[in-house]
Model the fold of this input.
Amino acid sequence: MQLSELAFFTSDVPGMTAFYRDFLGAEPVYQSADLAIFDHGGVQILIHRTYVPGPDDLPPENHFAFAVADVDAASAALESAGLQCAVPTPGF
Done:
């Protein structure tokens, strides 16, 4: 299992981007008014503008993601421990 992503939602994308730029000593690999992405040793740090989700939208909640060899087995283990898993579909 490998940590692959940290995602943060904020109303101040420029401010949070400036913090991580200074903290990491690196520029984002992608930046817009609504999103900044840093790559830190293969882990993506995403800074999203928060939003009010529509009925078919994912909730704008801070989260982390792991890359695993067997998604079904990892999901089952986490769910049996009482956690909720969100597994993106291919192309997501």
